[in-house]
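Our consortium's second objective concerns turning raw sequence data into structural hypotheses that experimental partners can test. To show how far this objective has progressed, the report includes one record in full. It was chosen at random from the queue rather than selected for favorable results. The single chain below, 425 residues long, was entered without modification.
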Amino acid sequence: MKPDDQITENIPLEMRALVLDGVGFEHLAVRKVPVPSPSAHQLLARVEAAGICTSLIKLIEQGPDHKLMYGWDVCRFPAILGDEGVVTVVRVGEALRDQYRLGERYVVQPAVDHPPINHRERYRDSGKGVGKVAVGYTLAGHLAEYILIPEEVLNSGCLLPVPVRQVPFAHAAMSEPLSCVVSAQEHHLHLTQTTPLAAREAMKGLKPGGVTVIVGAGAMGRMHVDLAFGYRPRAIVVADFLEERLGLVRKLFTARAAKAGVALHIVHAASTPVEKLVDELTGHRGADDVVVAVGSKKAIESAQKLVGRGAVLNLFGGLKKGEDIVGIDASAVHYKEINVTGSSGGSPWDIARTLELIAAEEIDAGAHITRIGDLDHAIALLELVKAQQIDGKAVVYPHRRTNSIHSVDSWSGADERAYLQASEV
């Protein structure tokens, strides 16, 4: 490991960062800002790679009114965005030198279950009643060359070590969105009895040897497919109305399904009745796990017809406010004894578990990356996300200067190494 002076001497006084100083895309810019200096109980880290998250669109359009901003005035106190990324420690506060070392690599869980410690005066009512803050919102985010790791993150256990250095930066940066899927599938609970007289036991996760249905083959739906293989269902059914999305599922997972001995059924919902296929696969007993990975009221209501007795229906895709009241078949809940569940984001454990799965190559984080760019491309990438012109995840390397956004089918460790070694600007 390099000595302190060798790591810190090259840290500039200024850095590039994606800054929001008002409401709307016209108030978004990549600009030079001072590199923060960590206090005794803080860290400074270099951002190696950062993901472009769809949730940033809502923040940009709402500003201080966003529920995680708590009235923080971005006009007076501009926010550095970015809730997904992987970082390397480059400066350690004096009080933390027995706990952290220069060169250590981490992922930050952006949902920080901790009251604000710093800048409380910038929150509405000085942060009274605020019990949760977020990185990339009121805490500085990853879409910058460096990031301050404050007390809120450290005290809440939201700084998670990357288990092996061989994990590519971009793959580690993907751990946050993938952790949302890990969390969602952990919410599946099946009650089992070995004999009719045995006590019921709860089994967590998708049912091994069962039939899993994933409604929606977008980016998050494909992540659900990726994670589902680990539970070893006998069949996975993926349904969508868009053939191009189904084509990606076919390309990414057909060979893997064959190797794992899982029957993968890819269904164009407009031409093939999903309910009929599930009936054929289960002898009319219904699926064991159904994940609705699309924000659609119709999809949620239709998915209820697919569940079998004791099954789990997961409402993963969020609905817009005002459109979030759906009809639930109470008879199915009652007589089939199904569980209806959902989740919003993950916990630090989910990030840690995701990093373990990535390191063990049990999931392929690179399969979900379709755009690569420079920090200067962050706004263009967000505009593409808003226009729904990116089907997959975009990752930027803040310290790499490049001429253009790269479209890729997937992104491996070898791809990353070649990209970082090349020079275009």
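The partners drew two points from this record. Residues 44 and 148 are 5 Å apart (CA to CA). The domain at 190-341 is CATH 3.40.50.720 (Rossmann fold). Both points have been shared with the crystallography group to help prioritize constructs.
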